[in-house]
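Appendix B, record 7
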Amino acid sequence: MSNDLSAAEILRYSRHLMIPEVGMEGQRKLKQSSVLIVGTGGLGSPVALYLAAAGIGRIGLVDYDAVDSSNLQRQVIHGSANINHLKVESARQRMVDLNPYIQVDIYNQILDSTNAEKISASYDLLVDGTDNFPTRYLINDLAVISGKPYVYGSIFRFEGQVSVFDAARGPCYRCLFPDPPPPYLVPSCSQAGVFGVLPGTIGTLQATEVLKIALGIGEPLIGKLLLYDALDSSMQTIRLKKNPNCKVCGPNPEITHLIDYDAYCGVPTRDLPENHHTPYDLDPGQVASKIAQGEPVLFVDVREPVELQISQIPGAINIPVGELAQRLKELDPGQELVLFCRSGVRSERALGILRSAGYAKSFNLRGGINAWARDVDPKMPEY
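Structure tokens (predicted):
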């Protein structure tokens, strides 16, 4: 791809070219730049769209998922026509339609320690569009080891964070968060929900940081963490310091190569599939048969109370998984208990709590209440 601008590109980017801080020279810099975006979901959507529109010459997309209708409330790069299509292909199609003068590479796979260095080798800058800790620590360590800037973004319900981690000029992600939180302490968007416009706000800020770095203008958020609260429209910036004892960017690093980040964080990179099972799983049909035969089964709903507005199994008691350990006395160890959540992920964790506390008759409803809706009660909505 030529680094010069064609007449069509000059017209396309004309509003950039009139800005003194960009101009022709800056637009050529953008065309010469390459960015790897990990994740094409809520955060990756606005990042990819705005970097494509701005004229970043080469953009790589890493994702392993397919478009689902529940994504479209926030993942604006995809459309209804792309449901069940690979996200990377859906995103590339939209980006090239938006700007045919860029190159979009796609990697339909999970980024992990076995492929991250190879995939990222030809890109200048890394962007985090994920919602899980294993990939976040992987991207950070990869950025430090390869000497590349890492544009970080994170969202939770109504709140978001943005920073630029560049170990050559400031702290890295591990300087701020040396170790991951306990498994499942911070749920993913699929478990906790997210305000639909929030990823647009945070993702656009991430794209802004990428363009500033590529152009060499302004002050990137190196050594700073920007916090945003959508409920009161507030923003604050916290100064960050480099940790002299950092495990990866300190003078005597313990981590000098990529590790197994799923094992390190104690949680898988992605939510477990609904066909995942443990020895203590029961299919919805099995449970329905028990009930039909008059067996005394108590459903324990470990979802958040707000989710009861969407769907409920009659007779279930609601104890959110975060409260379960403190409310064990409300459950009879001698009674058969069937735990469920939306898809079986949170209830599997709840099952571990009960089993370790001696509740030997506790089981997990495989696939959660969504599977119950499909297999037992088709009038019940899925979400």
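Remarks on this record: The mean pLDDT is 95. The domain at 281-375 is CATH 3.40.250.10 (Oxidized Rhodanese; domain 1).
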